[in-house]
Amino acid sequence: MKRLSTYITYLFIATIVLDGLNRFALAQDSDPVIPNPLTADTLQELLDRLLTLLLIFSTPILVLLIAWAGFNYIVGGASPERRQSALNIVKYAVVGYIIIIGARVLVSILKSVI
């Protein structure tokens, strides 16, 4: 069984290597073109897209942090340290989200001015 898995592994690696060589050989027929991975032509577009992605990823994180803080607040019971820790989590999460939204607004304002 071990021999069979070793054989399959070598066959898989050889397939990947030969496929890569084949693609390299076919690519020699035309001028090499490297596509732009950022898909943004200007710095403004790049900042706009990065801030949009940051906003998209930070929204669920904000919701999860608020839910986690609520859980800690409820479970904290009579412990003032745990309750204060939960309140700090909410405070810092909201402040961070406001900063992200502020950056997005600032870029939009600068884009309209320039």
Distance between the termini: 67 Å
Q: Report the average pLDDT across residues.
A: 81
The fraction of residues in strands falls at under 5%
Largest sheet: none
Task: Give me the count of strands.
Answer: 0
What's this, in brief?
The chain has 114 residues and is mainly α. It has helices at residues 2-27, 43-75, 80-113. Helix content is 82%, strand content 0%.
Write up what this structure looks like.
The chain crosses the membrane at residues 51-71, 92-110. InterPro entries: T4SS_pilin. Pfam families: T4SS_pilin. This protein is an all-alpha fold. The protein folds into two domains: 1-33; 37-113. Helices cover 82% and strands 0% of the residues. It is built from three helices and no strands. It has helices at residues 2-27, 43-75, 80-113. Helix 2 runs antiparallel to helix 3 (80-113). The radius of gyration is 26 Å and the shape is flat. The model has no long low-confidence stretch (mean pLDDT 81).
List strands and helices in order, with pairings.
Layout: H1 2-27, H2 43-75, H3 80-113
